[in-house]
Amino acid sequence: MKSVRHFLATASVLAVATTGLVAPTTMAQSAGVTIDDIMNDATTPQDVVTYGLGTQGQRFSPLDEVNATNVKNLVPVWAFSFGGEKQRGQEAQPLVKDGVMYVTASYSRIYAVDIKTGEELWQYDARLPDGILPCCDVVNRGAAILGDKVFFSTLDAQLVALDAKTGKVVWRKKLANYQDGYSNTAAPLIVPTKKYGPLILTGNSGGEFGIVGEVQARNPENGELVWSRPTIEGNMGTLDGKESTMTGTKNESWPGDMWQTGGGATWLGGTYDQGTGLAYFGTSNPSPWNSHLRPGDNKWTSSRIAIDPENGEIKWGFQTTPHDGWDFDGVNELISFDLEKDGQTIKAGATADRNGFFYVLDRTDGKFISASPFVKNITWAKGIDENGRPIYNDDNRPGDPKEAADGKKGKAVFAVPSFLGGKNWMPMAYSQKTSLFYVPSNEWGMDIWNEPITYKKGAAYLGAGFTIKPIFEDHIGSLKAIDPVTGETKWEYKNKAPLWGGVLTTAGGLVFTGTPEGYLKAFNDKTGEVLWQFNTGSGIVSSPITWEQDGEQWLAVVSGWGGAVPLWGGEVAKLVNHINQGGSVWVFKLPKQSASN
Amino acid sequence: MRVLTAVSSLRLAAVALGVAVASFAQARPLDDIVKSGYIDVAVYDDFAPFSWKDADGRYRGIDIDIAGELAKSIGVEMRVMMRQAGEDLDGDLRANIWRGDLVGRKMADVMMHVPQDRGLQEMQPGEVEKRNDLVHFCCKYHLQTFAEIVDPDEIDGKTFAQFVYKKIGVEVDTVPDFFLTSAFGGQLMNSVVRSVTFAKTMQSFEEGKVAAVMATKAQVEWMARNVTRKTKVVQYPTPDIIRKDWPIGLAVRTDSRDVGYAFELELEKLAASGRLKEIMADYGVTYTPVPVND
């Protein structure tokens, strides 16, 4: 079947090419996504052309046809299977343009689907080399679109541009060497610049293989590198093929030459705010894991940084976990929003960190506004001081491995949250209707200890041991409505298994998210009451979208259990190991006759 | 033409995946290996002097030569699987021996260069063995330890104290890296020069950027043979290092442990005949037998 479809798609393209000699330029224009379409995505619900329903990443749709009263009538329109012998985690957010859905899948695959019929238009499977080392499942989180091209990154750390009509490769660029442990799973971010026109921004990822985090900007026409910006102080950036400036000041917050291998990967990609003209990226934890080896704040690891896309300069940085010792990766997204506080409107940004605190920052200069815990029983810090620095609980830092006796575990501490975080990669949403953030969080802790008996590439190695444990008997997952003004939790929905999917909220008064148990759920945005749910047949670890087509409001979510949770054992595994894998897109709308109910 | 290519590559992909899925569930006991005429051997990539691919694409190294002898002893062809090292041994064992990796590559019948826990010789299993209960550890063939290579014209002391003023190279994220960074109250912290790979560590010594390198003894002996600089291999006292030496052996799946038993006997023969010593000497490495009680 697949081969027949490929043949038909190719044949019809040929037919167009031979009969429509006059048309090509106008066709390309009408099919194209412009940078204005991307900038206006949040307010134009007829399409979804960005990861985050707008580059600010609010995941708020102004659509209100589906509302708290009629959402109970939602029914599936079609489901599309990704096929293949192997499935694993599906973390993608689809894009929608001109009646076509572009959706990525595990193992670096991407599909174009006709939204009216659910039929495949084309499929592209990246040919993955033998030597890739994906750390945390073979996921992909989504594509980007501009002009007549669709872009996505692959597990072997390449960025691929495909013809949106045919799925044929236009260009393919190596972002980093997969042989060195690099890979890529995030959706690329397209931003406007005055000097270069639109640029396509990517982060980098790759376990603890001695890498330095980096953001790269490329020309979407040909994939050529325009600038690069390392995240760790002491390293040089590039601009127009030449060295530009150094990040920070060498050895300000790192000892010796550790800044050359300090970590700080930008593996989750970024968001962009047109008002400030800044791109916001999160950075992962520092390397090596043992904090006793690297006195200092270790900038900019476990941080949010704001980059000027015109030249790749860092405008500001805010470190959520200075001198991290718990593996609190700081990549979580920063969402731009207007904070109404004390009669003023502040250009703010919010981020829910792995470390369990919900931060509100001034997005123009990175100044700290507030932080409040969004998970319970946090142990590693007593709180966040007025400058935004954690007040550490020194007893809760894992001990120096030197103090571990031969052949025995070092001192174990029980730390909350666990290294998988109060919130992991899954994006939260901000409602312009309720002015609340909807945060997919998890209540869990970890025993963490130093482990002298571990080996790496044939040699003795000082590892760390982790065991993740739930804190409460009845749930780990917790969807919370958080007021960014007060930091208060307005409502909470408890889910037995950990939540690992993104959130969507709408002007219809609804909040949507998926669960590992397979349900796509709709909540009342003010009360958290579950108004509707549908089981998609496998766990949901992806971000839902909604859009308007032919006068109707549609919803879509990708289903397919996987991601990092099933890779870890212990008590958490018991909650999820019965969940079957899958790989499909589900699309919903209201039946015409009941739309008015 | 294009259409045909697309179709055939899709079919090939499906076939390749099918094979991977089939091999996933199978352990191969000795009889099956002998009958098939080949044995799949996993070795670490880019890991001189034990296993690497040279400029001509040939597999070379101590582990390759030993695996060749083992294959010969049961009359089968050796098929080498070069695998990158993961974050730790547990990950390598999971990918190469008992579960397979996330991208469905074939698993090996035997994995070379598997460090073995002291606990294995006691009544209680060691930590590594406990965590990997589907792996059978066996067949120790070398005792590994750490050592330093120095330029004797620059360095003539007897302890690490001299590196307060001299640079010393390490591969990043290894025990020598952790040890030198934290030892002696952090006094050597600013003298440690980290390289991303061992080859680059070797290069920084060759180019005179560091006066010494700390690595496993086999690695520094290999360096001594391959750099043009004047060299001396030494072992300074390492008061804080927890594990001063550890045996290297093989890993097979627990349900094909008869392969391990066969190779255990063969390795005893190779040790007794002097062949193990000879193989290691070919690479400048001193063979260190594993003590019986270790």
Can you characterise this structure?
The complex is a heterodimer of chains A (597) and B (294). With 597 residues, chain A is mainly β. Chain A is 6% helix and 37% strand. Chain A is built from four helices and 40 strands. Chain A has a six-stranded antiparallel sheet with strand order 11-12-13-14-15-16. In chain A, strands 1-34-35-36-37 form a five-stranded mixed sheet, with no helix packed on it. A four-stranded antiparallel sheet of chain A has the order 2-40-39-38, with no helix packed on it. The longest helix of chain A has 18 residues, at 2-19. The radius of gyration of chain A is 23 Å and the shape is globular. Chain B is an alpha/beta fold and 294 residues long. Chain B folds into two domains: 18-144 and 246-281, 3-Layer(aba) Sandwich (D-Maltodextrin-Binding Protein, domain 2); 145-234, D-Maltodextrin-Binding Protein, domain 2 (3-Layer(aba) Sandwich). Chain B is 36% helix and 22% strand. Chain B is globular and about 60 Å long. Classes of the chains: A mainly beta (597), B alpha/beta (294). The interface between A and B is large, with 62 and 58 residues.
Report mean pLDDT of chain B, rounded to a whole number: 86
* Structural class by secondary-structure content of chain A: mainly beta
Largest sheet of chain A: 6 strands, antiparallel
CATH architecture of the largest domain in chain B: 3-Layer(aba) Sandwich
**Element-level helix/strand string of chain B:** HHEEEHEHEHEEHEHEHEEHH
Alpha carbon gap, first and last residue of chain A: 40 Å
Q: What is the tally of beta strands of chain B?
A: 11
Please write the CATH class name of chain A.
Mainly Beta
What is the count of structural domains of chain A? 1
What radius of gyration of chain A results from the CA coordinates? 23 Å
Give the overall silhouette of chain B.
globular
In short:
With 597 residues, chain A is mostly beta strands. Chain A is built from 4 helices and 40 strands.
